[in-house]
Specification:
The chain is of the alpha+beta class. It has 2 domains: about 1-85, no CATH class; about 95-295, Alpha-Beta Complex (Fumarylacetoacetate hydrolase, domain 2), CATH 3.90.850. It contains 7 helices and 18 strands. It has helices spanning about 25-35, 45-50, 50-65, 100-105, 180-185, 190-195, 240-250; strands at about 1-10, 10-15, 25, 75, 80-85, 95-100, 115-120, 125, 140-145, 145-150, 170-175, 180, 200-205, 220-225, 225-230, 260, 280-285, 290-295. The strands form 4 sheets. Strands 1, 2, 5, 6, 7, 8, 10, 11, 13 and 16 form a 10-stranded mixed beta sheet that branches. It has a 4-stranded antiparallel beta sheet with strand order 15-14-17-18, with no helix packed on it. Strands 3-4 form a two-stranded antiparallel sheet. Helix 1 packs across helix 3.
């Protein structure tokens, strides 16, 4: 199932994409109008904690609504909604893995390190199709990083590697935008990774049942339709299950947490001369089975 969050008439909604249509089912309105279920989560993050039961609830709502004579009244066209990140706000900082692809580590002037984790502030979250700034007043080296992002579905600590997928709700696309000069200046990642809008996510979160093996997906990043990154998640040094297990040794993972899994080679800094983002650029990050995350910069 492909789930999205959106704003309509100053209210935040969520729902599944309508199959073969450029529209979303308004599951909150379905529940409010038809009272299909005894209760239903009012936000996607709240629902994530119920795992596959949440998905079954959504399927039930759509099944009932689709049989109504006025079924179309429960659909919202993509042209009338404002897209939001599928996870509009995480419970804590977004967690991310650094140098998790050997070729990317090499292009950054080093080798693959031990397990590297950094975070991005929740205020970095932005949406598909949202116009973002290159923060020219703060940085002269704003860079892109297309990545697979994992959405955690239930609380866990000291999670064994072999059980890690039990804690996954689904997957989305991230662009881990980075001010390279701030990274160098501060000798750590947080400030350079935490400019407002520097973590667009979307357009959907795809539930794990539709992507049973996250280690066999193609990732392609284009800047103004020029292919810059063309990688495979099978090239990760640390797999999704290893990442979840290792982080959970120290941090208690919670429903709605998002983990970025690293980026393949081809970032702007890796070119000679570097190809950093500038006003007018359009970045598209595509991941097989999820879709394409698109942002224009000004």
């Amino acid at each position: 199932m492909k789930l999205l969050s959106y704003r309509l008439n100053d209210k935040i909604y969520f729902g599944p994409k309508v199959k073969k249509e450029e529209a979303v089912w308004d599951v909150l309105s379905i529940q409010e109008t038809l009272q299909v279920l005894p209760s239903f989560p009012t936000s996607i993050v709240q629902g994530v904690s119920f795992g596959m039961d949440f998905i079954e609830q959504i399927r039930k709502l759509v099944e009932v609504a689709s049989k109504e004579e006025n079924a179309n009244s429960f659909k919202r066209s993509f042209t009338e909604i404002e897209w939001l990140s599928p996870i509009p706000r995480t419970p804590k900082n977004i967690m991310a893995i650094g140098k998790n692809y050997a070729d990317h580590a090499k292009e950054m002037g080093g080798v693959a390190n031990d397990f590297v984790v950094f975070t991005k502030a929740p205020t970095t979250i932005a949406a598909d199709e949202q116009t973002l700034t290159v923060h020219a007043d703060i940085t002269s080296s704003y860079d892109y990083e297309g990545e697979l992002a994992v959405v955690i579905g239930k609380e866990g600590k000291n999670i064994p590697t072999k059980l890690a997928y039990d804690y996954v709700f689904g997957y989305t696309i991230a662009n881990d935008l980075t001010a390279r000069d701030l990274q160098t200046k501060h000798q750590q990642y947080f400030l350079g990774k935490s400019l407002n809008g520097s973590c667009p996510l979307g357009p959907y979160v795809v539930t794990k049942d539709e992507l049973p093996n996250p280690q066999e997906l193609a990732i392609v990043t284009k800047v103004n339709d020029e292919i810059r990154q063309n990688g495979l998640t099978s090239d990760m040094i640390y797999s999704v299950e290893q990442i979840i297990s290792e982080i959970s040794r120290v941090v208690t993972l919670e429903p709605g947490d998002v983990i970025l899994t690293g980026t393949p080679a081809g970032v702007g800094k890796g070119f000679n001369p570097p190809k950093f983002l500038k006003s007018g650029d359009i970045v598209k990050v595509s991941i097989e089975g999820i879709g394409t995350l698109v942002n224009k910069f000004e």
